[in-house]
Amino acid sequence: MMKFDAAHAHLQEDINSYQPEVSRLHKMIVDKTGAGNDYMGWVDWPVNYDKDEFQRMLATAERVKDKAEVLLVCGIGGSYLGARAGIEMIQGLYPDLKTEVIFVGNTFSSTYMRQVLSYIENKSVVLNVISKSGTTTETALAFRLLREMMEKKYGKEECRERIIATTDKARGTLKQLADQEGYESYVIPDDIGGRYSVITPVGLLPMAIMGIDIKAIMQGLSDARTDLSTDDLKANPAYAYAVSRRILQKQNRDVEMFVTYEPQLRSLSEWWKQLLGESEGKEGKGILPDSVVFSTDLHSLGQFIQQGKNSMLYETLLQVETPTLDEKVPNDPANLDGMNYLSGKSLDWVNKMACQGTLEAHEITGSVPNLIISIPDMKEHTFGYLCYFFFLATAMTCYMLDINPFNQPGVEIYKKNMFRLLGKPQK
Ligand code: PA5
User: Is 299 labeled as catalytic in the residue annotation?
Assistant: First the structure.
């Protein structure tokens, strides 16, 4: 299903020498006894998820999909990155669909907001507002503007058919507002934090509305939970990945560059950056997660990776065995562009050769270690599987550093300053 390969990473320690530590920490994960254990609902979610709510999501998706020329997904951080990662990975960037998705509520940019409002003015919209706390300012402000626009356009009654709230089951202003206005609402479980929430209605409902098979995502998650339930480092690629990261950091490799060769995986990289960065980056510890999409970025950051001050870097290459679509290079008798040597070859084969050549250039010539994760395709099952793989690897990696993987205390500091400057009333 999914393969992990550390053969190109030049690890100076044996991964298997970490077995006793991994076994001890695995028990902490399974028994939910580690730091932040209130937020470990994701561990058994693939089998424990609310089946009635899941059916309701399918019904909602069916009900609203014809009303939505545009699906607006209003949320920030964990409340949007997963849905975006899944939708783009599975459907590609220009799918032939009746509904297009636009992500809002993740910025204060006035130009962005104004342009979205103008763009959707004459289109039929459905809005899914997502916020666990209900108080996130970026999301709340965008929702206020969109709600005003929608109420003017459709009236309050019709808005009940078009606005769906995903939030905490009891607390928070969004829950109150949803109940008062009569919006359908979905629950973000108490024990699943933002960046682990893509597998709940936070990620699944927007994906279902976009026509993605969320049952197959749940199957991928559940298969990963089964496959990755062992503490044996030789059989658990998620733990082998976590240990490899630890070894590389001990070799002073403090920056991890997540490498893909598919533009439709760019948002998956953003999601991955949040998952690792927000989970691990605290107490002066952690590996800085960064990302590139090759071969595009070989023409920009590729130069730095190859020959810059790259001694703090390593790459994690996410390889896709079979692309979603492929295209053959046509023959051109005139051959003015000199490309006939590739006539009849598939574009994906060219992409794979670029990948192979780059791996060698970076690893051998540039001395940049490479970890390789291979996935079979970019379909639903693989997306679910990959989410669980990274959740587990993140938990293991953080526990190896004695860090709570599930909080983000540092995020509050900018908010405190911003609220002071905005004159937010103290409670
Ligand atoms: O990982 C996290 O917890 C954060 O990224 C949150 O998801 C983000 O801040 C949005 O929070 P909320 O869903 O409460 O609006």
Answer: yes
pLDDT in tens, 164-195: 999 998 877 899 999 999 999 999 999 999 99
- Per-residue pLDDT at 411: 86
Compute the distance between CA of residue 169 and CA of residue 179 in angstroms, rounded to an integer: 11
Between helix 19-31 and helix 380-400 the angle, nearest 10°, is: 110
CB-neighbour burial class of residue 69 (10 A; exposed 0-12, middle 13-18, buried 19+): middle
Number of domains in the chain: 2
Residues of the chain with pLDDT under 70: none
Pocket residues for ligand 1 (CB within 6 Å)? 76-79, 131-133, 136, 139, 193-195, 278, 408
Q: What is the pLDDT of residue 9?
A: 98
Q: Which residue's CA lies nearest to atom 5 of ligand 1? A: 77
Active-site residue, from 51, 98, 152, 299: 299
Query: What span, in angstroms and rounded, lies between the C-alpha atoms of 119 and 116?
Result: 5
pLDDT at 205: 98
pLDDT at 375: 98
Ligand 1 mean position, distance from CA 7 (Å): 36
- Cβ atoms of residues 363 and 308 within 8 Å: no
| Distance (Å, whole) CA 165 – CA 182 | 10
Residue 165 domain-assigned (yes or no)? yes
The sheet with strand 125-131 has its strands ordered as: 100-104, 70-74, 125-131, 163-167, 184-187
> Do residues 128 and 175 both lie within one domain?
yes
- Looking up tokens 């658990």 gives 236
Burial of 316 (0-12, 13-18, 19+ CB in 10 A): buried
Q: Are residues 207 and 225 in the same domain?
A: no
Supply the residue whose CA is at minimum distance from atom 3 of ligand 1. Answer: 194
Provide the pLDDT for residue 412: 86
